[in-house]
Amino acid sequence: MPNDLTPRKPDDVSGLLGRTVDNVIQGLSGLAASDRKEVALSVGHIIQRARAGKFVQAVKDEWDALVAKGRIKGEVIGSEQHLDCLQELLDFIDRDLPDAQRFTAMKNLYLHIAADEGSTKPDYLPQQLMKVCRTLSSGEIIVLLTVYRLAPSKRSTTERGLGAEGWLRAIVDESGLYRELVETHEDRLMDKRLLTPRRYGDRSGVTLGDHFRLTDLAVALCQWISAPPG
Questions:
Q1: How far apart, in Å, are the Cα atoms of 40 and each of 24, 26, 85, 106, 113?
Q2: Residue 215: is its pLDDT beyond 90?
């Protein structure tokens, strides 16, 4: 990002987001004025750009609300930490074709980082969380947040003896997802070190720990993606 365009204060970020929305709208207007055949071939692109504009506008609206509450500190805006995270978010919206579930997770994470919570973390940690979050599918996010919601009520000695099958049934019942989908997302979340691995040769055992199989990384992520900062 060129130096003369680098955000230095909260209003700079709001202006950048506003210009991004304007550019999307102008691009859609250009497509609408195109030849019918070109538009027909670009329907997917039109939908993508329209959603991108709505997503960026949502970030801008919540950003402005946090600024009005005094939650955004001016000295954080020009930091490498914030610029890296803002770039990650905008690139995600532009390139990854996110659905609402994935976008909400990334938006909430970015806003928490930009608010005073993010400034207390090592410079490299917020961007690493953004990169991990960006790899998650909607289904993986649903499973993670389901486990996060259930964890406080699953800490008794009895629950610790649930086993892999009991854990799976609990997630299926709470999330409403098919068992096969939960198992698919479980495998990927274990690969990403967000769920503790299954044990034994028949995969019948799990270590539930204090957070119903969420790793420390997953807990930190869920704390920030589960809701926007107040």
A1: 18, 18, 35, 31, 40
A2: yes
